[in-house]
Amino acid sequence: YRIEDADKVLKYTYEAGIEVTCNFMFGFPGETEDDFQQTLDFLKSNGKYITVAYPSRSYCTIEPHSYLEKHMEDFAMVPNNINNVYWESVDKKNHYPERLRRCEEFSKLASESGVSIGSGLQTSIELDRCYNLGFYYESKNDIKKAISFFKRYLNLDPKNTVINKKLRELQAIDVGLIEEYKINPIEENLSEHR
User: Nearest 5 degrees, angle CA 37-CA 38-CA 39?
Assistant: First the structure.
């Protein structure tokens, strides 16, 4: 299967009057920025033939019992114990926020090219983004970033009980961290002038 084959199939399908829907995935292990650019170039050259593009919002997930799960070392992957979507590459270049960035850049280009974006989600894309980034940063113990994304989520859906509860839990942790590392104001002033 080659890109040239896909180019022909998309063109001929479109010319035959058949609507085309394509799925795209971001962040396969080893995917480089050059690989991602090839995906964007493919969309640029074939967008006129594509009716709907589905950018996968689960990206490349480590599914239980899959080949990928059994060969993570071969793919230079580090699992995330909280969520199998949040894995990262050993070199730390391929991680959930980067896969999300690529998906968003692809979606923007598709929209600008007149291609409809399918989400496949039971919620809005922005809610999904805030939800996943909140839990991603919580899994990385970056409580402040997690809180900021859950607050953004609640700006869009203020009655969500799960996110309200999670935000209260994280804010309690955050206050605890602040109290644990609080500096005496006199010492703080002295250290500023040293």
Answer: 90
What are the backbone angles phi and psi of residue 78, rounded to the nearest 5°?
A: -115, 120
For 75, what's the count of Cα atoms within 13 Å in the CB-facing half-sphere?
Answer: 22
Q: Of how many residues is the chain composed?
A: 194
Per-residue pLDDT of the chain (194 residues), as tens digits, is 799 999 999 999 999 999 999 999 989 999 999 999 999 999 999 999 999 999 888 888 899 999 999 999 999 999 998 888 999 999 999 999 999 999 999 999 999 999 998 876 667 889 989 999 999 999 999 999 999 999 999 999 999 999 999 999 999 987 776 555 444 444 444 344 43
Cα dist from 125 to 53, 55, 96, 104, whole Å: 14, 11, 15, 10
User: How many angstroms separate the Cα of 29 from the Cα of each of 44, 74, 89, 140, 144?
Assistant: 24, 10, 7, 20, 28
The C-alpha atoms of residue 59 and residue 3 are separated, in whole angstroms, by 21
Alpha-carbon Rg of the chain, whole angstroms?
Answer: 21
Q: Answer for the pair 130, 152: CB distance below 8 angstroms, yes or no.
A: yes
Beta bridge partners of 55: 24
